[in-house]
Amino acid sequence: MRIRIINANTSTAMTDKMGVAALNVARPGTEIIAVNPASGPLTIESHFDETVAAVGVCEEIRAGEAAGTNAYVIACFGDPGLYAARELTLAPVIGIAEAAFHVASLIATRFSVVTTLGRTGIMAERLLHEYGMGIRCRKVRAAEIPVLALEHEADTAYRLIEAECIRARDEDNIGAIVLGCGGMADLAARLTARIGLPVVEGVAAAVALAESLVTLKLQTSKFGDLAAPPAKPFTGEFARYSC
After folding, report:
1. Is the pLDDT of residue 167 over 90?
2. For the chain, how many structural domains are there in total?
3. How far apart are CA 240 and CA 243, in angstroms?
4. Are both 82 and 101 inside the same structural domain?
5. Residues 6+ apart with CB under 8 A from 171
């Protein structure tokens, strides 16, 4: 089984971190290919960033199709380009936010999300409602750290994330915590041990779900809105998509 982990930003260090997190939970025999687009935002912290990044995600899906990929993980907590990606392939495509919400809901009746910035927390709230998980989430909390702090100020970032997780545990009346950034992929086990609640990290959750769908021989439905995009001409820099 071959799973392509698509880090939607262009940080290769973050891509490597996510690849390790995926390998740590992958079944024997599962091949993990961790990639990121060549062009796009270095980090994703706004709607604009997500929109630009979605094009790179689709490019990586197209590359994965040529390489015979069995399943894809979009490793950004905004799940950028998720539905467009599903249009481009029969293989399962799992977004890490959607995966983390569902996994948390299987082990706790209520959970909270701890993410990086307040503005991305608002974006996570939108996804919770879109995925029908708003009723299961008590609160979306922000440690108020930029994504790059997870690489360049890792100790400080961890302390702030841990402190927010402790507040979530003590104040939110929850059973689990979801980490709201792919760049936190290496923190779940450490935080679980420290906080005493299950801490769900989306990359690992998405890999496990992707493997399950492939094992069940379930593919992305091509009936309705996830059918392949209709053939049409594109212009300018997107002319390569014409068909």
Report:
1. yes
2. 2
3. 8
4. no
5. none
